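I have a small job for you when you get a moment. Would you make up a two-line entry for one protein for me to read? No commentary is needed, just the two lines. Write everything out right here, beneath this request.
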Amino acid sequence: MRKFKKGDIVGRISYNKDVIFEIKNIIKLSDNREIAILKGITDRIEADSYLDDLELMDKRAVDIRMKLLEDKMQKRVEKCLKNPQYCIEIAKKIFGLSEENRSSKVVYTGKILHLDGDKRYAEKSVRYYKSLGLNAIVKNIPENKQATVIQNLLNRYMPDILIVTGHDGMIKKQTDYNDIYNYRNSKYFINTVNEARKWCANKGRDIAIFAGACQSYYEAIMLSGANFASSPARIMIDFIDPLIVAERIATTENTRYLTINDIEEELRDGKDGVNGIGAMGRKKIMT
């Protein structure tokens, strides 16, 4: 059997290599067998696998998948910029302001604080937000540390919108969706949302929150205080789904309530991947 190492790009043979993973860590078990902790390259999922079920992925196959991810992100940006509902540079036209009074109005989109457990995704998120001209701060923070730093970050940046994401997944062969211990990182997302809502209560502020990743414990995340979360059907969500939620809240007028019905067609799997109670938009017009 080939010797695998941290950082190798692999697929699981038993799953027909449907997801491309990076080896996050390798753990030796009491019976001397080794398992790899895996994180998705193009999906927000974490999993594990015995080493003998792994196969190194061909570089060309990886490049193709990554190109598809980049293309998807670019198409989304182009779609937004072609649509005046999202285009920041012509935001004044969204509100029907006339040429005479347009110069006296200033449009502010909602400020986004985005915590991502994956460095690669965090970097892509920065590019996405910047391409759309959105006011966003992105921090690469491991899922298990997000709750410990969130209040300090909220104090520092005072955002309107909080995105808490990274990798997650259900433990193999587990079917009890109501047991938090059957999820890899959902408990960390829940704790982070709880801490964020404590901060809101102390500061007398309200922020819109999205939390979760692939196969996350949707119901518990929502109960902790999120406005939107993943994943109601316990499926994998697209890399870009949390970004779409952030973007739509940030660019929706603060007089309008945004529901999942307004967003679902833009998400890869609609309400199966992301759902929620909705949130007030965070775009403001200042005279």
